Amino acid sequence: MKKRKNTIQIPTGSKIFDIFNYIFLSIVGILTLYPFWDAFVVSLSPIEEYLKTSIHLWPTKISIEPYSYMLNLRELWISYWNTIIVTVVGTSLNMLMTIMTAYVLSKKDLKGQRIIMFFIIFTMMFSGGLIPLYIVIKNLKMMNSLAALIIPTAMSTYNLIILRNFFYSIPQSLEEAAMIDGCSEIGILFKIVIPISKPAITTITLFYAVTNWNQFFSAVLYIYDKNKWPLQLFLRSLLFENDMAYQAGGESLFMLGQPMKMAAVMMAIIPIMCVYPFFQKHFTKGVMLGAVKG
């Protein structure tokens, strides 16, 4: 007797929805990718090729002169160094503050937990305002220093809540077993909680790193020494204030126009893009776990 094969019939409506979904997501993907691709193509094109058309799908001629020009700018490397300092030191401080605070607030037996969380969430909805913050920074003698870009944003309420909810979902029996074995609270945090929470911590770290790398508005407010400008502030000056010529040593250098601008943009984007593949595995897992456990 022949065995009857079990086949699942997919409804026609579901097939139509899948086709529409693929088409829609493909269009969204192309619209998202094209600005980046356009900037990349323009950055490799000579100025005369750029002026021929407003749509750039691929470079007809390749020129590395914009990148060569950018790489020879001393101010670029100074701003890169400042941004690296802000990103590394700032992200380290961000994670230290967020992990320690989230771990304490995840304790189910913490007295006054609701009140503390209320005041933390309150700061997310209402802030003192731009002028009071500026006065505080000025009175703390942090004006024109990289500390003004790091300390005021030492912890994000949003990231704190996400990590706190993740810690809260960890079975308490693990911590109790560790305490029976003689492990201290600090030991539990670093030997048990943090290793288990690696995906969530990696995700939050990436959020902080991207935010610190793109520091711009705070730099506009607090930094006026060009030698302390972060990368984004230097690019803003390069792209908008010096549109015709860039002064270096009293000599006017030939500007490469839009290709040079796009080369500057690419040089700001590429470093953070190179870091992402190392975080991608944990980042994707962390987002999914946050969606289930959060």
Spans of 5+ residues with little confidence (pLDDT < 50)? 244-255, 290-294
The separation of the N and C termini measures 52 Å
- Mean pLDDT, nearest integer? 81
The CATH topology of the largest domain is MetI-like fold
Number of helical stretches of at least 4 residues: 14
Q: What overall geometry do the principal axes of the alpha carbons give? A: globular
Descriptive account of the structure:
The protein is built from 14 helices and two strands, in the order αααααααααααααββα. It has two domains: 12-62, no CATH class; 67-293, MetI-like (MetI-like fold), CATH 1.10.3720.10. Mean pLDDT is 81; it is low at 244-255 and 290-294. The chain is mainly alpha-helical and 294 residues long.
Produce a short descriptive summary.
This protein has 294 residues and is an all-alpha fold. Helices cover 70% and strands 3% of the residues.
Topology diagram in text:
Blueprint lengths: L11 H32 L3 H4 L14 H7 L2 H32 L7 H13 L4 H10 L7 H4 L6 H12 L3 H9 L4 H12 L1 H16 L3 H6 L8 H11 L3 E4 L2 E4 L2 H37 L1
Antiparallel strand pairs: 1-2
Helix pairs in contact: 1-14, 3-14, 4-8, 4-11, 4-13, 8-11, 9-10, 11-14, 13-14
Features:
MetI-like fold, disordered C terminus, two-stranded antiparallel sheet, single chain, mainly alpha, globular, 294 residues, 14 helices, 2 strands
